[in-house]
Design brief:
Blueprint lengths: L15 H4 L2 H11 L5 E6 L7 H17 L4 E8 L11 E6 L3 H12 L4 E8 L11 H8 L3 E6 L8 H12 L3 E4 L2 H11 L6 E3 L12 H7 L6 E6 L8 H14 L3 E6 L4 H7 L2 H12 L6 E4 L5 H9 L3 E4 L10 H8 L4 E3 L3 H6 L5 E3 L5 H12 L2 H15 L4 H16 L9 E3 L9 E2 L2 E2 L2 E3 L6 H5 L7 E5 L2 E9 H18 L5 H14 L9 E2 L15 H16 L6 H14 L9 H12 L27 H11 L1 H7 L4 H8 L6
Parallel strand pairs: 1-2, 1-4, 2-3, 4-5, 5-6, 6-7, 8-9, 8-11, 9-10, 11-12, 12-13, 14-17
Antiparallel strand pairs: 15-16, 18-19, 19-20
């Protein structure tokens, strides 16, 4: 009978010394904001429905989560005319971008606000046009605070007027941020802006805890359908009609295909032309008899709902016809959900999509789009490879990494405080007394809490599973001694630090697996299938490293005897006693290193690395009672204090060998 996947319950430890308690954090930050350098972000902001508003909120959350000890973040929300938005607490100012007089008034207000050090402007040409050509440049030139301009659109081959306009904006700023290398090159080649003034920080992506696709399809009533999707605020520039025109050819090969058009019409489009574009699309659906193959989700989805739709998407379609669109937030969301992507060749797509991550098609080419969809729909392995490779490519662009890049830019422009060259990682004191002195920024990265959720979900009654598909346990991959030894050391470390007795369950499971792998000869096999049978791979692969790692894990467990139950210690000692005679036959360098790590944990009369009383070699044998090479190694460990006195110049190397805790 196949071993069932029975995972330990999820739990997330939030250690105070690593992450701090959030409620305390907010109280401390509120009390010390006057001592932190202020960063004011000038942008559209939720509840305004706008792609840049969502981008800015995601960026601010990431910066606050990772660097709340380093600066105070506030927002100046951009509004086009009079609106009655109810903003969250971080919004300090509001600018009506249609009123030219408010620009100078805001600049003077910022200049008089001593808490503000930098102004970060999220720039889109449509934001600042209604007040006249000079309102926004005058705002920048009136500012006495350093400004950073984030260009969400960079138009190539400008005419003389546009080139002059962008040059003036660039001159008024301390730095410019763009999201693609293509945009940086355009600013250099077409606008003459020095490369060193332009920082490339990719559009952030979410690290999504991926859910089961079939379960999501069942939840949304789409079981058995092959889901194509696109999303974003609707406008003619998205060229949704290209997909509609391609659908008859797609349905011919894939009659279960369903195209989801997710998102309401852009508010500015509704204001200027109503629902004219959506009405045209719905009429085309009827004309092509696509009613059972197209579904409009005409609303602005909360983030969680959006991520669910994207995670159950088999292929994401990006069909923008704007050749100058530098970057797309919708594209980034799709990548974060591991969607295989077919896209028109905007700069963002050309930089992140390769042969192993997606397919590029020409602008407004229904036939190319249909061919690409049918190719991907007919090749499940290729879709799976695209999904996995896409997730690997987007990790560097996570919002957490985007926050680090922005924080580093701010520090570089301000200059680090005297004697500091970069980040400080605070693990014992969550909040600094002051991070703002002499006009400088001291970056203090808030370490995340320990999260064992995935480890526990990967752990069954038998042990920890070898592989997962993204974050879904792959029970068919079986188990290995290697992984269970690593997991045992990790959970022992967590238990020693946290004292959480629920750790003892998985600790016992991993130890039982190690015992299960031990053979009558004393050594271990490594590979076990999902039915708990040893596999032929054990006869084809060198098992020395796995054996050495198991010995290290057993030694690490016994070294924690002061805090562990007696039955765990007795079992580990019994397994170790049986393996002792075969250790002398090990010749793998790494295996010997693992065993030496184990020896270091047992220095008679000394405290071990965990601060507990040392436990001698099993049964406290004399050196002569163990195999010769083991005896020599043990003698070396025992002589470490003398060697340090004799050879002080080598003391640092000896300390590295004997004092450091084993690392995973």
């Amino acid at each position: 009978m196949k071993n069932e996947l029975v995972a330990y319950p999820r739990r997330i430890a939030q250690p105070e010394f690593l992450a701090g308690k959030r409620s305390i954090a907010q109280q401390e930050i509120a009390a010390s904001n006057s001592s932190l350098p202020g960063i004011l972000i000038l942008t559209s902001y939720p509840p305004r429905e706008c792609g840049i508003a969502t981008y800015s909120q995601d960026l601010l959350k990431a910066l606050d989560n990772k660097f709340s000890n380093s600066f105070s973040l506030k927002v100046c929300a951009l509004e086009a005319g009079i609106n009655e938005y109810t903003y969250p607490d971080e919004v300090k100012y509001v600018l009506d971008t249609t009123d030219a007089g408010q620009y100078i008034e805001l600049a003077n207000t910022i200049n008089n606000d001593n808490s503000i050090m930098f102004v970060v402007v999220q720039h889109e040409f449509g934001f600042f046009q209604e007040a006249g050509e000079e309102a926004f440049p005058q705002f920048l030139y009136t500012l006495t605070k350093s400004a950073i301009l984030v260009f969400h659109t960079v138009l190539p081959k400008p005419d003389a007027a546009l080139k002059e306009k962008i040059s003036r904006l660039a001159t008024a700023c301390a730095a410019i941020v763009v999201m693609t290398k293509t945009s940086q090159k355009i600013l250099k080649d077409d606008y003459g802006i020095p490369t060193q003034k332009v920082e490339v920080i990719a559009h952030g992506t979410h690290l999504v805890p991926h859910l089961n696709k079939d379960a999501l399809k069942e939840k949304h009533g789409l079981t058995g359908r092959k889901v194509l999707s696109t999303f974003g605020l609707l406008s003619s520039g998205k060229s949704i009609e290209t997909t509609l025109d391609s659908l008859p050819a797609i349905i011919e090969s894939n009659p279960d295909a369903l195209f989801l058009v997710i998102g309401k019409t852009h508010p500015s489009v509704v204001k200027s032309e109503g629902e004219k574009y959506r009405d045209m699309l719905e009429a085309k659906v009827e004309a092509l008899s696509l009613q059972s193959h197209v579904k409009f989700i005409n609303r602005y989805l909360p983030l969680q709902d959006l991520l669910e739709y994207l995670q159950m998407t088999d292929i994401y379609l990006f069909t923008s016809k704007d050749r100058h669109q530098a970057v797309s937030g919708t594209f980034s969301y799709a990548m974060s959900c591991g969607c295989p992507i077919i896209s028109t060749p905007i700069p963002h797509a050309k930089e992140v999509l390769r042969q192993n991550t997606g397919i590029l098609v020409d602008f407004q080419s229904p036939q190319q789009l249909a061919d690409a969809v049918n190719r991907l729909m007919g090749d499940e392995l290729l879709r799976s490879a695209f999904s996995t490779n896409t997730l690997q490519r987007i990790v560097p662009t996570s919002w957490e990494n985007s926050a680090i890049a922005h924080a580093s830019l701010l520090q570089k422009l301000a200059g680090p405080p005297p004697g500091e060259n970069g980040f400080k990682y605070k693990t014992t004191r969550p909040f600094p007394q002051s991070a703002y002195s002499n006009g400088k920024i001291s970056l203090e990265y808030r370490m995340p809490g320990i999260n064992l959720a995935h480890v526990l979900e990967m752990t069954t009654e038998a042990g920890i599973i070898q592989f997962s598909k993204i974050n879904q346990p792959d029970l068919d991959s079986g188990y290995t001694l290697d992984d269970n030894a690593r997991a045992l050391v990790a959970l022992l470390m967590h238990y020693e630090w946290s004292g959480d007795r629920s750790d003892l369950g998985p600790i016992r499971t991993y130890l039982n697996f190690i015992e299960f792998c031990q053979q009558p000869t004393g050594d271990f096999l490594n590979y076990v299938d999902s039915d708990r049978n040893f596999t032929p791979q054990n006869n084809e692969t060198n098992l020395s490293d796995a054996n050495g790692r198991a010995i290290w894990a057993l030694g690490y467990l016994v070294s924690k005897r002061a805090i562990l139950p007696a039955d765990l210690l007795a079992k580990a000692e019994n397994v170790m006693q049986r393996v002792l005679p075969v250790i002398d036959a090990m010749h793998s360098t790494r295996s010997m290193a693992f065993f030496n790590q184990r020896l270091v944990l047992f220095q008679p009369g000394k405290a071990n690395a965990g601060g507990h009383a040392a436990y001698p070699i099993i049964g406290q044998p004399a050196v002569a009672d163990v195999p010769p090479r083991i005896g020599a190694q043990l003698e070396m460990v025992r002589r470490l204090p003398d060697l340090r006195q004799r050879y002080p110049a080598r003391g640092h190397a000896l300390r590295l060998a004997s004092d450091r805790k084993p690392r995973l």
